[in-house]
Amino acid sequence: MRIRENNVEQSDAFDETGNRQFQRIKQTAPAFILTFVIAIATWIVLSGKFDMFHMTLGVMSCLIVSFFSHNLLFYNTDIRRLPSAWLRFLYFFPWLIYQVFVANIHVMYLVFHPHMMDLIDPRIIQFKSRLKHPMSHFIFANSITLTPGTVTVHVSLLGNYSVHAIDTLSGEALPGDMEEKISRILDE
Amino acid sequence: MDIVIGFLLVCGLLFFTGGSIGILRFPDFYSRLHPAGKLDTMGLLLSLLAMAVYVMMDFSIASFLTGLKILLIVVIVFVTSPTATHAIVDAGVRAGLKPWTKEGGGGV
Question: What is the value of pTM for the model shown?
Answer without folding.
Answer: 0.70
